[in-house]
Predict the structure.
Amino acid sequence: MFRLNLKIALRNLWKNKAYTLINMGGLAIGLASCMVLLMYVAYEWSFDKQFKNNHKTYVVYNLANASGRIFSWAWTPGDMAPDVEQSIPGVAYASHSSYPEDRLISYGQRNFKKSGVFADPSFLKILDYKFVKGNPDKVLKGVNTIILTETMARNLFGDEDPINKTVKLDNAEVLKVEAIIEDIPKNNSIRFDYLMPWALNVKVNPWMKTNGYEGNFCLTLIQLQDNNYFERANAQIKGIYKQHKKDSNSEAIMHPLSKWHLYSNFENGKSVGGRIDQIKIFFILAFCILLIACVNFMNLSTARSEKRGKEVGVRKTIGSSRKSLIGQFLLESLLLALMGMLVAFVLLEISLPYFDELLDVNLSINYSDWRFWSALTGLTLITGFIAGSYPAFYLSSFEPVKVLKGATIVGNSSLSVRRVLVVFQFVFATCLIICTTVIYQQLSYIKNKPIGYQRAGLIEMPIQGNFKAPEKLNTLKDLLIKSGAVSSVTSFSRGLNEDGNNTFSVEWPGKNLKDETLFNFRFAGLDFVKTIGTDMISGREFLSSSDSSNAIINESAAKIMGLKNPVGTMINSQGTPLNIIGVMRDFVIESPYYRARPMIVYHHMREVNVIIARLNPAMNVSNAIGKIDEIIKTLNPEYPVGRKFVNDGFEQKFQNEKLLRTLSNWFGGFAVFISCLGLLGLALFMAEQRKKEISIRKVLGASTTNILTLLNRDFIRLVVIANLIAFPLAYIIVNKWLSAYEYRINISILPFVIAAVLSLLIAILTVSVQSVKVAKSNPIDALKYE
Amino acid sequence: MIRIEKLEKIYKTEEIETTALNDINLHVKEGEFVSIMGPSGCGKSTLLNVMGLLDKPEKGSYHFMDTELLGLNDRERANFRKRNMGFVFQNFNLIDELTVFENIELPLIYNKIATSERKRLVNEIIERMNIVNRSGHFPQQLSGGQQQRVAVARALVTKPKLVLADEPTGNLDSSHGNEVMELLCELNEAGTTIVMVTHSSHDASFSNRIINLKDGHVISEKMNKGRNEELI
């Protein structure tokens, strides 16, 4: 029975190659899209889960209450980890570590600027990295030691054995290599190239030792003995700040490590999602695309029911039960799903490297993973079942007497189900077109929105090695300008795109005592305003080193302080009295989607960390870059140049939105394409079915245009209905998406017009491919044979 | 073998009710060859469908070998049908995707006959029907007469007690038509009960008894003693 059914199924598929191709192609693209998206979701989901005890590991968040708002960071004081380990029951380990930061590592002539982390031994107890060489129990206990990742070790030492050899950190500290660990996978929140003892951090920064609960400069990780302790531990850690510092406005909470990556947004001290929102969208998208492909199959199968009806009739007459017929049709759709899956597999292997690059992830098929195979099998079965269910139940319900007598079996009900399905497909496709357009609009709006300075032609380099000496920095500045490569040079305490460095402790005349506004603070060199291309609203910028007790504030700060004449006002920031000499236009440092935060800029040359230079527009860029690199190399030969374009860093801020745009673009395109395949198949069928009617109409004098209108009218009506449903739906979706941004576009009519025109155009073109052929055919051909 | 009493079948559309069969009483003995004749729309096909359990009447009773069949549900009807009845249609109704052999084999599969036995039965009937060299062909590759032979073979392969034929020669020329009729006669002589719907009095002359239907009523019954002799 099974063999015979299989035979019928195969012969049927072979006989109707066009339908088979359309169905299989649709299913293949649907399955491939679904799998890529699911793999991406799985990848994001897998973050930080490769550690054995990830489920009982927590990141400590600092919730700082300021003017009624709660700010949340995973930055905590250095003393917290030892305190937690000692005083809170149920804690197996607590570790403090620095966040990854780029530093210079050298061995002989080889210099690399790579990212390193300082951590104490419990860090390795909590996160069980795979050791290639060395003993995990004996490392990080000294001061001048280092653990390298495999790639880092290979870069530094080539084929030599690195153990017990020494490397140099920032050209100062000599560190002995004590272990090698495997490279940190991309799906890890904490990624570094080498690991050093916390003691070394304290040695380089002695203030850390006595800082207590004043500053938040570490990442604190806690591992519990088991999760039964969580409620109590979390309750106890809450007041840890106030225990050690009476006037603290902070509370601490434990956030699961496994949720750190996807649930990183906090609002008023509560976790409110984060990346997970996007992941959810992709997850839904994955199944919607698959569903669209299934709908194609349902549509075409039921549309062809007239042809299959006779077979159903004969089988029933001979004695087939309905169950066995349902089985047969399901077998057919499973077969098709299987074929689609094979093609999808090929598509997947071809496209994965491309998506890896596009999304900057590392997706690959793990053939030895049983989860992969079960997901694959599950997906194929589900697809086959969903796609085949409606046709199977519908076709098997035919009454033999009617179909064998040639009565019309395509009743109105199946026709309207098909219509509903087509409408569903186009609702989805239209929604995607609208959303994609809005994402585009929002991105280009934000990108073209003035950010307060001229980011084009600006470059940044770290102040490192010799440049830490002010005279060398001045020499560099002179040489750069003299070379003609740059037109002006300044320095800043952080990169223009970097956030961080903020404080609540700013006092100004007339400040409300309860006001706790968070101010960014920065240090800038001379010519800052001129170099970055912004301007002063009032006052002046720093002119000489005598400005060290003066400050510049930005517009937002001036507004918050409510000063009528800010210039000349004395304020106090972090205990330092400052005289405001100027108000600068707001410019974007953090997110381009939000209003700039109030900022205070000081002038202290020993606090600056970044050189910012404006390229001379008179010289071509590659020449200028060459000259700059050459000058830096001669003045600071031991360090890599580390030059970056500010614009590139700025682009990084759009990563999430770009990802969303890319994915919705691609998969929206696929959804539209699959829907078109379905439409094409349906048109193919309708044209065939109405051949005789069309021929009679032609004989009676209908023109090609009449016929085309006749054939297209039905489809156009469906697409119009789909549009009408999609519009409010899409409006709700994009409105919700946009509401997360402070700076956002107003939803205009344009995306809706685009979607309507596009969907109609696509539908008409698709249907016309088929209907033109029919409309132009010779009517006698269809009428001759009865 | 068949005892039909007071059978009534009504077709309902949105507005009109049509009585297709009205108070039909009919007995068929085992081994009989009965023809049902009558003008178009007289209800003869409906009667055949009711006898073949393809259609349900509103009233009356239908006994087949002392079993009342009208109360059966769909699955029981299908089961009864596949064990006891074979069908031959005017337009053959072979499955295009299956070969001659597979078409004939299909009812045996539904009757859950073992593979080797199936092979034997199909080969036997193919030989008997004289279509051995066609067994690997698909229906489209055969002439109408050959297709109808396959259809007859398919109806007979399960050795049914009753064969129902709906205008078996309707789509055939006269020589092919005669071949099929002779085939049915041979079967009948071998003991199979046959009920046939036909337009053609030539075809009807092959049967033992002719029933005339008009507007859903039996209007006459004629015995046919000796196949080609004058009717009584």
Remarks:
- Helices of chain B lie at 44-51, 74-84, 100-110, 115-128, 144-156, 174-189, 201-204.
- Chain B touches chain A at residues 45, 49, 52, 54-55, 74-75, 78-79, 81-83, 87, 89, 91, 93-98, 102, 105-107, 109-111, 154 (CB under 8 Å).
- Chain B has seven helices and ten strands.
- The beta strands of chain B are 2-12, 17-28, 33-37, 59-64, 67-68, 85-88, 162-166, 193-197, 209-214, 217-223.
